[in-house]
Amino acid sequence: MSVAQLTAGRARPALVRRVAGVGVVTAVAVAICALLTAVAILAPLLAPHDPNAVDPLHAFAPASGAHPLGTDDTGRDLLSRLIAGARPSLAGPALVIVASTTVGAFLAIAAAWRGGWLDATIARLLEVLFAFPGLILAVVAAAVFGAGFVAPVVALSIAYVPIVARVVRTAALKERALPYVAALQVQGASGWSICVRHLLPNLLPLIVVQAAIGFGYAMLDLAAISFLGLGIQPPSPDWGVMIAGGQPAILDGNPQQSLYAALTVVVAVVSFNLVGERLARRFRIEEQG
Amino acid sequence: MPIALFVGRRLAALVATLLISSVAIYGALAIAPGDPAASLAGGSLPNPQALAQIRAEYHLDDPFWTQYWQWLSGLLHGDLGRSIVFRSDVADLLSGRIANTLLLVAYAATLIVVAGVGLGLLAALRGRRVNQLVTVATTVAMGAPTFVMAIVLIWIFSTKLSWFPVYGSGDGLADKLWHLTLPAVALSCTWVAYVSQVTRASVAGELRSEHVETARGRGLPNAAIVRHHVLRNAAGPILAVSGLTVAGLFAGTAVAEQAFGVNGIGSLLIESAAKQDLAVVQILALLMVGAFVVVNTVVDVATALLDPRLAERQGATA
Q1: Do A128 and B28 touch (CB under 8 A)?
Q2: What is the per-residue DSSP string for B165-210?
Q3: Which residues of A touch B244 (CB under 8 A)?
Q4: What is the ipTM of this complex?
Q5: Global pTM exceeds 0.90
Q6: A-B interface: how many C-beta pairs under 8 angstroms?
Q7: Fold for domain A76-282?
Q8: What is the pLDDT of residues A88-118, one digit of tens each?
Q9: Tens of pLDDT along A120-158?
Q10: CATH superfamily of the B98-263 domain
C-alpha cells in the first residue's frame, strides 16, 4: 500500500477518539444527533414561521420572543430557516452514505471473494477514482447536469465509494482466509450464500463505523457545495446556502445568519463524528486502513 | 524491488491515471443532457447557424474517440480550446488567474509545513501542558472547514480588526500576499492541525523507541538525540503527510477563492460550473486532478528515495 493510499482516507483526530470514550460526551453527542434528526423529520411542525416569508420592515431584527434568533436581510425568521434547512442538510449526506456504502461494500466483497482479474480491475478503477477529490467531482457534475440537490449527491456517492471499498476489501480478504470459510465451501455452500450469510454479517460492524464517520465528511462536502452556490438554490433554506447568503451582511455588522448556520454545521459534524468514534471503540476498530 | 523499477512503475501508473481521468472528464460532455453544442454554448440556445459552427469547431459529428483525440492532441499542443460563454480562449482565461492560485497554494503549503510541523514538535518535546494545549487547539481546528473559517475570519477582520483586507486579490507581490493571508489561513487551518497531530504522534513514537533509549544510555545530550535519532526517523511520515495535504489544496482553492473573492482558477472553476461552461470546467478539472496525482507521485517517489525499504515492501505486496 502506497503512502498516498494510507492518507487519502479520512483524518480522525486523536482527541475526538479519546473523548468518545467518555460516557457523558457520547451521551450529549447522541442526543444532538437524535435531536437534529427529529428536527429534520418534523421541520414543518417545529418552525415558528414560514421559512420563506419575507418581511422587509423587520430586516436584521435582533433576537426577540417572536424571532428567537432574529431575522435576515429580508426579514425571514432565522430559526425557522435553520430548522427547515436541517432537511436537505441531513438528507443529502444520508443518501450519499447509503449509496456509497452499499456500492463500496458490494465491490469490496466481490473483489475479495473472486480475486484474480476481477480484483485487479476493481482495484485499478478505484485507484483512478481516488485521484478525483469529492469536491471536484461534485462541481463537474453540477456543471454537466445543472446545480441542485441531485447532481452533487450522486457525484459524492461515487467519490466516496473507493474510501469504503478499500477498508472493507482489506477486512474481507482477512475474513475470507479464516478456516470457517473453507469449511463452508467443503460442505458445498455457494459463494453467494457464504458472502451474504457469513462474510457480510461479520464485516457489518466495520461497514457501520465507516458509514458513521463518513456521514460527517459528506455533510461538510455538501455544505461546501451549497456554499459555492452549486447545490440547493436559494431561497430554499439549507445550512450551506445560509452561510453564503449571510456573507455580504457580515461587512455591515450583521453576521448572525452566517455564524448561526456555520455553528450548526460544525456542531452537527462533530456530534456525528463522536458517535462514529464511539461505535469504532465499541467494535474495537482502531485504524481504518 | 530496485528503486528504478519502483519509480518506473509509479510513472506508468501516473500516465495511466491521467489518461483515464481525461477520458472520464471529456466523456462528461457526451453524457450531458441535451445537445452537446448547446452545452458548450453554456446552456443557452444560440441560432442554428451558430450551433452548426460549434459542431464543426468541436468535431461533434465525429465518433467519440475521434473527438476525444482531437481534444487531447490539442491540449498536448497547448490549445486549450475556446470558452463560448466568456468569449475568450481558455488559455487566456487561465493565464490571468493561475498565478494567484499558485501563490495561494504556496502560501497555504508554507503555513501547513511550518506551523503544522512546528506545533507538532512543540507538543511532542515541550512537556505535558503544551501537549494538551496543542491537542485541544488542533482538534478544534480540524473541525473548522474552509468555509466556516472564512466566515469567522471575515467577521473578525471586517468588523473588529482591520489588519487584513477581506476581499480581492491585490496588485504586486507584497499586496497580493497581504490579500491572500486570510484565504491561506482559512484554506490551511484543518491541515495545519492534521500535520501537527501526525508530527506529534510520529516524534512521540520515536522518543519511546529502543534506539533512543540506547542513545540516552550512552549519555548523549538530549538536543543531539532529538536531532540525530528522533527527527531523522520521524521525518518520513511527516514529509509524506505534508506532501499529500499540499496535493489536496488545489481542490480546496475553489472554496477559499470564492469566499474571499480571489481572482484565481478555483473561483473560475465555480463560476464556469455555475454557467455550465463545460469547455472551461473540463480543462480546470483535469488540471486539478493532474496536480493532485503528480504531487502524490512525487511524494511517493521522494519517500521511497529517502527510505528504500518502502519501495521494497511495495514490491512484495504489489
Answers
A1: no
A2: -SS---SSHHHHHHHHHHHHHHHHHHHHHHHHHHHHHHHHHHHTSH
A3: 3-4, 7-8
A4: 0.85
A5: no
A6: 158
A7: MetI-like fold (1.10.3720)
A8: 999 999 999 999 999 999 999 999 998 889 9
A9: 889 888 888 888 888 999 999 998 888 899 999 999 999
A10: MetI-like (1.10.3720.10)
